[in-house]
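Input structure tokens:
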């Protein structure tokens, strides 16, 4: 029956497992280990662990398994492994699948920590990294060869909201025998299209829209059972990156309202983007569903929404940006996004501060760039706040 459920129903009911007490709300199992009735039973479980059997919380936990099963359904994949943070999920997926001598082709527009894993961690262990302009299909064609092991990209890039033609990249990579791993944080679990486009794995920072309320770190890797319960589970469970059960429980409760929250935030983001585009103190606005977005046609083909984040450039550079941000009353200055509270970030001096200037210039992370995350406040109040703050410049 669950195979036919719509996403909003899956978000509430997917992956439910109840204890003998028949609880309505998902149970939280706060335990490191599990008891076996006999020594023989312990031996048998270590030989082959059943789907509803557990050994140690670093390997699996009933609450965490509920969250994994639900997220796998929502994202359209066979299985999932939950991690302690979004970056633990990115690191786990890449480290589990790569070894010295392998070749990775990745989009240049990536979150700073993702770039660090590629260029400072994997490269140190002999993995060859090639970065390309993710919006240029010809660049992907030139870089991906029969020697490519894995392709990595963000479907929608952070913070400049570049949109990759994901089906083209997946088809191209698979034609050369390469796996595709997509960071789906910006696309949101509600509007994600990685599976539909053919990505082998998608990684989600559940810190963002899933928790969505500024409480818990989390991440998840979704994919085929062979990959998730094979090399990925083996790597993550031995290196300690698994999600704790309290985080999994809060995430499960957040999934009940995820569809409602994200759709409201995305609608607000679109209204804000349209308003900002008309403002004389804004140079440009980037939001995938705006006709002015450079990859608008691709974005519209892939998803019905551009997500909850808007990027825009304020005239006057860093000083003007800081004046604007400091004058905001409703928006919070923070480096997170996808929270119930609306947030603004200055990427050049925070999340992407350590990128070399040349790389910032290439990615268009300039001194006037602001990343805005639309929350759940009244959109009229948010626009009024932006208006009065821009007037201070």
């Amino acid at each position: 029956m669950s195979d036919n459920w719509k996403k909003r129903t899956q978000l509430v009911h997917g992956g439910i497992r109840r204890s003998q007490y028949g609880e309505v709300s998902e149970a939280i199992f706060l335990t490191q280990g599990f008891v076996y009735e006999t020594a023989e039973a312990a031996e048998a479980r270590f030989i082959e662990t059943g789907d509803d059997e557990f050994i140690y919380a670093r390997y699996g936990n009933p609450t965490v398994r509920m969250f994994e099963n639900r997220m796998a359904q929502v994202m359209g994949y066979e299985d999932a492994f939950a991690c302690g943070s979004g970056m633990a999920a990115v690191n786990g997926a890449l480290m589990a699948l790569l070894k010295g001598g392998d070749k990775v082709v990745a989009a240049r527009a990536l979150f700073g920590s993702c770039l660090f894993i590629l260029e400072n961690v994997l490269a140190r262990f002999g993995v060859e990294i090639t970065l390309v302009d993710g919006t240029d299909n010809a660049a992907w064609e030139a870089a991906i060869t029969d020697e490519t092991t894995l392709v990595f990209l963000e479907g929608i890039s952070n913070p400049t909201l570049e949109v990759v033609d994901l089906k083209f990249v997946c088809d191209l990579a698979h034609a050369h025998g390469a796996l595709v791993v997509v960071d789906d944080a910006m696309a949101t679990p509600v509007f994600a299209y990685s599976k539909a486009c053919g990505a082998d794995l998608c990684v989600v920072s559940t810190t963002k829209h899933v928790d969505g309320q500024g409480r818990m770190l989390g991440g998840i890797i979704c994919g085929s059972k062979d990959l998730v319960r094979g090399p990925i589970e083996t790597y993550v469970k031995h290196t300690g990156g698994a999600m704790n059960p309290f985080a999994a429980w809060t995430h499960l409760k957040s999934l009940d309202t995820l569809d409602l929250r994200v759709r409201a935030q995305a609608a607000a983001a679109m209204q804000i983007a349209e308003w900002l585009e008309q403002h004389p103190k804004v140079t440009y606005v980037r939001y995938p569903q705006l006709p002015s977005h450079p990859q608008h046609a691709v974005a519209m083909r892939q998803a019905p929404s551009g997500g909850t984040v808007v990027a825009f450039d304020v005239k006057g550079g860093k000083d003007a940006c800081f004046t604007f941000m400091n004058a905001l009353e409703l928006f919070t200055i923070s480096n997170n996004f996808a929270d119930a509270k609306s947030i603004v970030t200055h990427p050049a001096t925070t999340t992407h501060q350590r990128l070399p200037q040349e790389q910032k210039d290439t990615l268009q992370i300039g001194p006037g760039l602001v990343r805005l995350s639309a929350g759940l406040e009244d959109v009229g109040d948010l626009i009024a706040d932006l208006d009065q703050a821009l007037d201070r410049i």
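The chain has a mean pLDDT of 94. The domain at 255-390 is CATH 3.90.1150.10 (Aspartate Aminotransferase, domain 1).
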